[in-house]
Amino acid sequence: MKKIEFSKKAKKEFNTIVGRYPEKRAAMLPTLHLAEKEFGCISPEVEVYVGELLTVPAVKVREVVTFYTMFAQQPRGKYHFQICRGISCDLLGCTKIRDYLTEKLTLEVGATSPDSKFTLSEVECLGACETAPMMQVNEDYYGKLSQKSVDKIFRKLK
Amino acid sequence: MAEKIISKFFDIRDSHTIDVYMKHGGYKTIQKTLKKMKPAAVIDEVLKSNLRGLGGAGFPAGRKWSFIPKDSSKPKYLIVNADESEPGTFKDRYIIDHFTHGLFEGIMLAAYAIGAHQCFIYIRGEYVRQAERLVKEIEAARKRGFLGEGIFGSKYDLDIVVHRGAGAYICGEETALLESLEGKKGFPRMKPPFPAIEGVFGCPTIVNNVETIAYVPAIIERGAKWFADLGCERSGGLRLFGVSGHVNKPGVYELPVGTPLREIIYNHAGGVLNGKGLKAVIPGGSSSPILTPDEIDVNMDCDSLAEIDAMLGSAGVIVMDEDTDIVRALYVVTRFYRHESCGQCTPCREGTGWAERILKRMLDGHGRPEDIDNLFRIAGNIMGNTICPLGDAVALPLKSYITKFREDFEKRIPVDGAGASKQRDSLMLLN
Ligand SMILES: Cc1cc2nc3c(=O)[nH]c(=O)nc-3n(C[C@H](O)[C@H](O)[C@H](O)COP(=O)(O)O)c2cc1C
Ligand code: FES
Fold first, then answer.
1. Which run of H or of E encompasses B8?
2. Fewer CB atoms inside 10 A, N or C side of chain A?
3. Measured from the CB, is residue A88 less than 6 Å from ligand 2?
4. Do the Cβ atoms of B391 and B351 come closer than 8 Å?
5. Ligand 2 centre and the CA of B250: distance in Å?
């Protein structure tokens, strides 16, 4: 297995994070968020590394990584489209937006484009039901979606 | 129209900044409290205000705080639950975005009351922008001496740490949240011990919803009686109703606890979209049983809803117009709970999957005559047989949707028996 390591800057951030908690292991989620940013995804090597940092067995890290939906175990595209499929979005036609996106990106839900530009996912309620149908692209929310507004978002990304 | 407490900040420019918050009277209450009130008096005031937990369970906030052991030498923790993942719920996001320092002032008062010197805000991982805002504003407050050692020049120390989740509805359940905060997967714990006795890191812990905490400054500033009188008999104050689905004006409405559901939908949220008729309403987030149009005169408080076997939950109102396919709605809701079941308890882990598959097959035109009975049976076997209430949160909708809209479900079972496969054994039936 390839040995990996945080950059100097990430190491510093990691130390700050650990300092916030009375127990080292509590820094698990923030450390994994940091690691994902640093390494692009949480590979088995990253699990081992995070385990060493937090002095817990790698399997305990893996257990966490696989329990939560947000951690990428494989690299994701530059733009991660996450369409909400929750009840309020469903009532207002999110499946149409999903179908439009699968067509536009020629991607199945769950897949990443060969050029690593896009990943398309369906997710549960994102807590913005008043803007249904909505989606999250990387860190930002986009609501009141229509084919037109989706086109507009695309133009901004390219 | 009744006055607003939290939502009046939603329309003020830059209301999330310290200066704007202070311009509107912010941070006066905590300073006065630190000088003049004993922690026990703060708890007493909140108790008398009839403030009930606004995260879902409706437990009286002051009563919960009073469970913190007075003689324990262990550190005490306050945790603000900002996991906000119940479908139909988005109010906490508004509070974090626009009433940021109001939330902090509430945290200061609550932490002071229970004797905590550290507070964690557990925020759902997807709320990246909100987490950034919290971190930035905490830093701003620390710079002014409002957080850190000896806040506002008093002898009381307090710090707030923002802890991001990573995508798991179950981590909104308070004991799963504790596990998650400790760096583990979010498996709910058995209670007792209750978090107030043994919570995070084995220490006394209070977990409260964002909105619950955000109402505390107004209660201490203007008094328990004033707050209690705004609401109804056993539930004080106002609360934020989130309305979504088929309405003309979806959004957050701050109204007295006990406001009739009809008024919320038709007077505040602008009525059903495109002037259509109403088919059904979920009154309090997707865990709640569903209501039919003739039930919407109910008052929106925990007790009134409990009387008609529904629940106010997170007060996320989801409106469905007359053309809504109820079978699909139940499928979508059930799919959510199947996806989010943590897998610890068999009835929930397996039952949610069975129910989802049956509903899917009904939607696909392959319903079988025994499906309705099986769905009831599955719901009955989940109900009360799990460590945490996520199981009930799917069992109750299953039972109520089918009971109240039975015809819609029966229509999904082909009369010629085309979907039925009589020769299959009972396990196969559920595949
Ligand atoms: C499955 C499940 C999910 C929950 N999700 C949340 C949530 O996202 N936010 C929240 O405040 N409470 C949530 N709760 C309720 C919490 O367990 C707890 O009752 C609440 O945070 C206590 O705060 P309160 O008394 O101020 O309402 C959830 C409960 C269950 C069973
Ligand atoms: S249902 Fe899509 S944001 Fe809530």
1. none
2. C
3. yes
4. yes
5. 12
Q: Is the CB of A128 under 6 A from ligand 2?
A: yes
Tell me whether residues A130 and B251 touch, CB distance under 8 A. yes
Q: What are A96-146's pLDDT values in tens digits?
A: 999 999 999 999 999 999 999 999 999 999 999 999 999 999 999 999 999
Token duo for residue A74 = 């494989």
CA B9, CA B20: separation in Å to the nearest integer?
10
Place of tokens 């978002």: A153
Ramachandran quadrant class, A71 (left: phi over 0; alpha: psi -120 to 50; beta: rest): beta
A33 with B164: Cβ contact below 8 A: yes
- CB of A92 within 8 Å of a chain B CB? The answer is yes
Q: What is the pLDDT of residues A42-75, one digit of tens each?
A: 999 999 999 999 999 999 999 999 999 999 999 9
> Which domains can be identified in chain A, with CATH numbers?
8-67 (1.10.10), 79-157 (3.40.30.10)
**pLDDT tens profile B371-413:** 999 999 999 999 999 999 999 999 999 999 999 999 999 999 9
Pairwise CB contact (< 8 Å): B182 & A26: yes
Q: What is the CA radius of gyration of chain A?
A: 18
Q: Are B102 and B214 in contact (CB under 8 A)?
A: yes
- The pTM (predicted TM-score) of the whole model is 0.97
Q: In this complex, is the C-beta atom of B290 within 8 Å of any C-beta atom belonging to chain A?
A: no
What is the strand order of the sheet B278-282 is part of? B251-256, B238-245, B316-321, B278-282
- Which H/E stretch holds residue B352? helix B346-363
Which residue in the set B166, B251, B252 is minimally distant from A71, CB to CB? B166
Token code pair at residue B159: 């710090």
Domains of chain B from N-terminus onward: 7-230 (3.40.50.11540), 238-321 (3.10.20.600), 326-430 (1.20.1440.230)
Q: Is the CB of A87 under 6 A from ligand 2?
A: yes
Instruction: Describe the strand order of the beta sheet including A135-137 as a list of residue ranges.
Output: A118-123, A79-84, A135-137, A140-142
* Nearest CA-CA distance, residue B48 and chain A, Å: 32
- CA distances B401 to B49, B260, B362, Å, are 35, 22, 14
Query: Are B375 and B357 contacting, i.e. CB atoms less than 8 angstroms apart?
Result: no
Any ligand 2 atom below 6 A from CB of A83: no
State the ipTM, two decimals.
Answer: 0.98
Here the tokens at position B321 are 């117009």
| Distances B78 to B45, B217, B291, B355 between C-alpha atoms, Å | 18, 16, 35, 38
Contact A56 B183 (CB under 8 A): yes
B residues 337..366 contacting A (CB < 8 A): 339-340, 342
CA B330 to CA A87: how far, in whole Å?
A: 9
